[in-house]
Amino acid sequence: MHSPKQIDQQEFALMTLVLRRLSTLFRMACALLPALLGAGHAHAQLRVEISGVGSQQFPIAVVAFSGETLPQDVAAIIRANLARSGMFRLMDTGATALPDNATPNFADWRARGADALVIGQVQRLASGAFDIRFRLFDVIKQQQLDAGAYTAQLNMLRFTSHQISDRIYERITGEKGVFATRIAYVVKLSKESYELQVSDADGQNAQTALRSREPIISPTWSPDGLRLAYVSFEDKKPVVFVHEVETGRRTRVASFRGSNSAPAFSPDGRTLAVVLTRDGFSQIFTMPASGGEPTRLTRSSAIDTEPTYAADGNIYFTSDRAGGPQIYRMPSAGGEATRVTFRGDYNISPTVSPDGKTLGFVSRRAGRFQVFALDLASGTELQLTETVRDESPSFAPNGKVLIYATEVRGRGALATVSSDGRVRQILTTQAGDIREPAWSPWPRGTQP
After folding, report:
1. Can you say how many angstroms the Cα of residue 166 is from the centroid of all Cα atoms in its chain?
2. Whose CA is closest to 201, among 238, 169, 229?
3. What residues pair up with 395 in beta bridges, in sequence order?
4. Among 18, 88, 92, 386, which residue's Cβ finds the most Cβ atoms within 10 Å?
5. How far apart are CA 231 and CA 132, in angstroms?
6. CA 24 to chain centre
7. How many other C-beta atoms lie within 10 A of the C-beta of residue 145?
8. Any residues with CB less than 8 A from the CB of 352 and at least 6 apart, and which?
9. Which of 187, 271, 275 shows the shortest CA–CA distance to 239?
10. Strand (E) or helix (H) holding 172
11. Per-residue confidence at 99, pLDDT binned at 50, 70, 90?
């Protein structure tokens, strides 16, 4: 890994074409985080390793769903989701299976140590689809907390399992779950083969959105979760595309003279903030998300890059205008920028929690690049990670978890950490390196 260093403006455009293990400015130079990521397999699923637990764990039993035997075990997926959250302690249910209409023996489940119980069943309908039902019980109070019924095709069983997991998580914790969301990330398969992939939040069900012989970097989701914006080098220069995830339709939206990079959708999804060097400097512009003429927001002689919108419309970005990279905030229409980070001499890659209260970022301290969280009201700072080469943090839509890229045993890996730093997960593959994670918003129709 190469240590970041300053570059002058004349070197900037050339630097974006020099791909190294971590760019010389950790994307400070037009936010072009390189994608030389080691070999991998196109559809290798991510393996999850969990460490740490929440401040309180809820004992819960998820019984095998009765009925059809399916390729996707609904109860097993629910168990895995709840376990990954670090908020639940899963009880051994043995081979027990209870139909959805069964009356639980609460005394028995209480004796096993369960405070909550999930039962359900799966039945095939005449149409070929599946009817999936579940019930959630409070074992101590001996009462039903929730129940639901879903109709799903075979290829939607995982998604439906995630939806049920989200309902259980929310009913018990009071927080909306993110199991039914998705993550996007970049894999380098060979020296001249890159893929932008989209998977479930647990790393399963990976699908390739784009293959290219040239690097793909900086993916970011639209607020409706239907589009990805990213930077591609397929034109032998950095160009910003907007990509419809379901159809694969792509639009080249920023291909101006010089470098085009670091896209970020506005809260309404109609506007993109981008970083352009069309005027000779790395500056922040906005433009229609469908393409069009950009409007310049920053006017400095520094490198201004990595814009990201907050829910209130303000833009947070990285700039070296104070001599070293720090994070600033400005109105979405441009104007005076206010410095936000002050501890440490190297703070980059801002991401703002959905409620606008917390800033996640990467900070270099004692030679280590780690993820921190800053309470924007109080200025209180919390170190979230203990690894040494972390980058590209992205908040989950509930603001309770961040995903980021790191290195594990010399390979690129994705990791998640709870916003209080207690629960950490590593998502790896045996096939190679993965980088540039971005967490999707909630699926349509499920936003709070």
Report:
1. 17
2. 169
3. 402
4. 88
5. 40
6. 24
7. 16
8. 308, 309, 310, 311, 316, 358, 359, 360, 395
9. 275
10. helix 157-173
11. confident
Q: What is the pLDDT of residues 350-389, one digit of tens each?
A: 999 999 999 999 999 999 999 999 999 999 999 999 999 9
Sheet holding 347-352, edge to edge: 347-352, 358-365, 368-375, 381-383
Cβ count near 143 (within 10 Å): 9
CA–CA distances in Å: residue 328 to residues 135, 314, 316, 350, 414: 48, 10, 6, 9, 26
Global pTM reads: 0.86
Identity of residue 200: D
pLDDT for res 189: 79
Is there a contact between 118 and 134 (Cβ–Cβ < 8 Å)? yes
Q: Read off the amino acid at residue 23.
A: S
Please give the domain boundaries of the chain with CATH numbers for all domains: 9-47+181-439 (2.120.10.30), 56-173 (3.40.50.10070)
Strand partners for 114: none
Residue 1 has pLDDT above 90, yes or no: no
- Of the candidates 121, 117, 119, the residue with the CA atom closest to the CA atom of residue 69: 121
Rounded-to-10 torsion of CA 189, 194, 199, 204: 0
Residue among 102, 115, 100, 106 nearest 148 (CA): 100
- Is the CB of residue 290 less than 8 Å from the CB of residue 284? no
Contacts (Cβ under 8 Å, ≥6 apart) of 69: none
CB 413 within 8 A of CB 382: no
Angstrom distance (rounded) from CA 54 to CA 61: 18
pLDDT at 94 over 80: no
Q: How wide is the angle at C-alpha 314 spanned by C-alphas 311 and 315, nearest 5°?
A: 110
429-42-436-6 Cα dihedral, nearest 10 degrees: 100
Question: Which string of DSSP letters, residue by residue, matches 44-95?
Answer: PPPEEEEE---SS-EEEEEPEEEE---SS-HHHHHHHHHHHHTSEEEPP-TT
